[in-house]
Design goal:
single chain, DHBP synthase, 2 domains, 333 residues, alpha/beta, twelve-stranded mixed sheet
């Protein structure tokens, strides 16, 4: 057991982080998407501690985070030149690119795969952390496995208290959902996990992009591809956008039983629901909704017996990333 500290990011706390990483201990740090739980990407024992702290399945690979000054090609083989164009266009930022690995990264981090996901975070705080530790950092989200991903230091603390020594506090993450994961090992870049960098954005740079089609029985190729994920610690129900009456009936039934329901929806759906209901408001634009999703799920689990959630509009491709998380976090009714 650790005495877990939450510290603002400064020279003193970064020196502590560097010390813990050098000793093979995991440290939680903010990115622009969610908080990560990081350890040296070259240290098998340190990587094992991440899996142990999270209770993470051993077949779910980790993403390696590097500073923008780091030579990514020391870790990976670039098979197709379009990868360089994408790297230039979208990094630093919320894009993870999956390459053929040169074998330097721990096999425990890659779960024995011959590929590795590399991300160059855009968050200034993440970059400060990576520069301070001076090494590639393997990191999943800093939460108990399958629980909702953390977007504040307090969210991390609620899950990781006693499991890790240090949480670097960078405030609320602005992106709100994890990075897009893009396979660049074939002639067409292929999205394995949707996020804030969309297929349309990728097509504008390299002319093509595909979505992976994977089944529950397929081998996990990237984080977030498992089918039960991101779940809050309360009941949930997910409705289509045209199922207003069904959702209202469920909400009212919980009220009649003396329980506390909350609607979780965007501004457009809220206009079609009762004014005096309880709400976890996601916002209006796709970016607002993405930024607020995990924050509201974690807020909801503290106040609600059930979160009655609605699908989001996927006309804006960021909504595809949000729906990817919603369908794994909430039960269809």
């Amino acid at each position: 057991m650790f005495e877990t500290e939450i510290l603002e990011i400064n020279e003193k706390s970064l020196e502590k982080a560097r010390k813990y990483i050098s000793e093979g201990l995991p440290v939680a740090f903010p990115t622009e998407t969610v908080y990560g739980l990081g350890a040296s990407a070259f240290n098998d024992d340190a990587i094992k501690k991440i899996f142990e702290a999270k209770g993470r399945p051993s077949d779910n690979p980790l993403i390696v985070h590097v500073d923008e000054s780091y030579d990514v090609d020391k870790l990976v083989e670039v098979t197709y030149d379009y990868a360089y164009k994408l790297r230039e266009a979208f990094t630093p930022g919320p894009l993870t690119m999956v390459y053929k690995s040169k074998g330097a990264v721990s096999k425990i981090a890659t779960c024995g795969l011959d590929t590795v996901g590399i991300r160059i975070p855009g968050s200034e705080d993440a970059r400060k952390f990576l520069k301070a530790v001076g090494a590639p950092i393997a990191a999943p989200s800093a939460n108990i496995s399958k629980h909702t991903s953390p977007v504040t230091a307090r969210h991390v603390y609620d899950d990781m208290k006693g499991r890790i020594p240090l949480i670097l506090d960078g405030g609320k993450c602005v992106g709100g959902i994890e990075s897009t994961v893009l396979d660049v090992t074939t002639d067409t870049p292929t999205i394995l996990r949707s996020g804030l960098v969309t297929a349309e954005m990728i097509k504008r740079v390299v002319g093509k992009c595909a979505y992976s089609t994977n089944k529950e029985t397929d081998k996990v190729r990237a984080p977030g591809m498992k089918y039960t994920h991101y779940t809050p610690k309360c009941e949930t129900a997910l409705f289509k956008r045209d199922e207003i009456e069904r959702a209202k009936n469920l909400y009212e039934n919980y009220e009649k039983e003396g329980k506390i329901p909350y609607f979780m929806c965007d501004s457009e759906i809220e206009e079609r629901l009762p004014v005096n209901a309880n709400y976890l408001r996601l916002g209006k634009t796709a970016e607002e909704i993405a930024s607020n999703l995990y924050y509201k799920l974690l807020e909801g689990e503290k106040v609600a017996d059930i979160i009655v959630a609605f699908e989001v509009d996927t006309a804006d491709e960021v909504g595809i990333g949000v729906m990817n998380r919603l369908t794994k976090a909430c039960k269809r009714i």
